[in-house]
C-alpha cells in the first residue's frame, strides 16, 4: 500500500512538472522569436544591446560589476542549475533513477545521446583550432522545449514515454553540468577561492546531516559559495548544483511530508520556468537571421557539427544505446512504449537550445563564430522540433 502511494506521488509530481515545462516551452519559444526579431532589424538592435550595459552590486567597500547578460548567465542561471540539481537529486532518491533497474534505460539513452553528437561534431571540426572546442554544444537536450512539443499531441503520447524523456533529460543535464565544470572554465583556475568554496560546502554538509530546515541557513552560504566559485575560475553556475546536492531531502520531524528539498523545488519552478529561462532567451538568443554570415566558402564546420550532431547524432545515440540495453537485458522498454516512439523521441532530443546556447557562449572567443553557432543551434533545434513532432504523431497514431 505504501509502495503504491509513493508511486502515485512520484507520478503526480512528474505530471505536474510536465505541465509546467510545456507552458514554459511555449513561453521560451515566444521569447526566442522576440530576441531574434529584435536582433534582425537595425531599428530595434539597441534593445538587445541593453544586455551589454554594466550592472553592479555594492556593499560598503565590496563591488561586483558585470554586464546584464553576465548577470543572467552567471547569477540567474546558477539558480536554474540549482533547480536542475534538485530535480536530479529527487529522481535519484525517490523517482525514476532510484534503482539500477529503473535508471538503466534513461541513463544508457542519455549517454548515447551525449557521446554520439560530441563524436560527430569532433569529426567535422577535427583540426579546426577555433571551433574544435565546441564539441559540448550538441550534447544537451532542452527539456522545456521538448515537453512543450510533446504537449501539442495531448493524451496520444503514452505517459511512460513522457516520463522516460523527462528522466533522460535529467541525466542529460547532469552530463552537461559535468562537461561544463570540467571542460569550460570561465577563466584561469584560482585554488584559493576554490578552497573557500569547499569550506562553505563542508559547513552546508554539517547543516544537511543535522537536517536543519531553515532556508536562510542554505541561501546565505550558497550565495557566498557562488561568489567564491565565480572567482575560482570554474563557471559560477556549478555552485548551484553543488548547493542542490547539500539541501536536506528528508525532514527533521517524523510524519512531516515536505522536506526543504521539495519546498525549494516547488518554490523555484515558477521563477525558473517563467522568469529565468525566458530572460536567458531574451539575453542570448538574439542573432540576426543572415545566411550571409556563413561566407562564400560554404557551410562552416561548426555549423555542420552542430547540425549533424543534434539532428543525426542525438536520435542515433539515444536509439542505439537504448536498443543495446534492451537486447542485452540491461534495461527494458517502459510499458506501452514502442521502438518507433523511442526513435521519434530521439529526434526531439535534438532540440538543444538553452544548454547548447549556454555552452556555445563559453566555447568560442570569436564573436562571429559564436553567432554562427547560435544561429546553427536555433535552426537545427527548429528542424528537430518539427521532424520530432511529426514522427511522434505518426508513431502514436499507428499504435
UniProtKB/TrEMBL annotation:
The entry's keywords: Antiport, Cell membrane, Ion transport, Membrane, Sodium, Sodium transport, Transmembrane, Transmembrane helix, Transport
Spans through the membrane: 21-41, 68-86, 107-124, 136-154, 163-184, 190-207, 272-294, 306-326, 338-363, 375-392
Main location: membrane
Location in or out of the cell: Cell inner membrane; Cell membrane
Protein name as it appears in the record: Na(+)/H(+) antiporter NhaA
Entry membrane topology: Multi-pass membrane protein
Purpose: Na(+)/H(+) antiporter that extrudes sodium in exchange for external protons.
Family matches, as NCBIfam families: NhaA, PRK09560.1, PRK09561.1
One Gene Ontology molecular-function label: sodium:proton antiporter activity
GO terms under cellular component: plasma membrane
Source organism (scientific name): Candidatus Cryptobacteroides excrementavium
